[in-house]
Amino acid sequence: MTGLAIFDFDGTLVDSQHAIQACMEAAFAAENLPAPTLQQTHRIIGLPLAQCMARLSPDSDEAGVTRLVQAYSNAFQSLRLRPGFIEPLFDGALEALDALASAGWTLGIATGKNRRGLDAVLGSHGLHPRFATLQTADCAPGKPNPTMIFQAMEEAGFGPENTVMIGDTVFDMAMARNAKVRGLGVSWGYHADDELIEHGAERVLANFAELLPALAR
Description:
The chain has 217 residues and is of the alpha/beta class.
């Protein structure tokens, strides 16, 4: 069986936690607020940026959240301009994408990043041609709303019975459940295995080598 394999991005394909945390710290410093810890940041990765800031700074009003979002965006743009900056792929990610494509799977992405940010990272790794559909926070409601999966299926020409969502957070698994597609968790990301199962993961993969056999079931 083949179909549409939709990947989350941060924490699933790309290890971006340190870049995200650095930009969080810069954004909160710009507002003279205490920065979230890395553990707190892990809890919100995958959500749209405004929702992230509202959760991390619950005492901020709407204008304050908007300023945090802008400060974060500014920090990330500056970070990307630094010589040698790259958000690394997780070990085995590229080989897994190649294996899925060779097996006839169509690939997509559904991420809380905006399109500009996603394009920048995909471009740095030469990954654009591998994906038939790219769903981002600026083209649909954020996770766990299932709209990104619905749009990906429509664009790629697949139904829920032939679609799987692969991700590292409870937001990914809840989105898969809401869209009535299979959800596969990964253990190398930002949320715990038992949380992923609780939120609908069919199973949690220990490494990318387990992905193709899991999809073949």
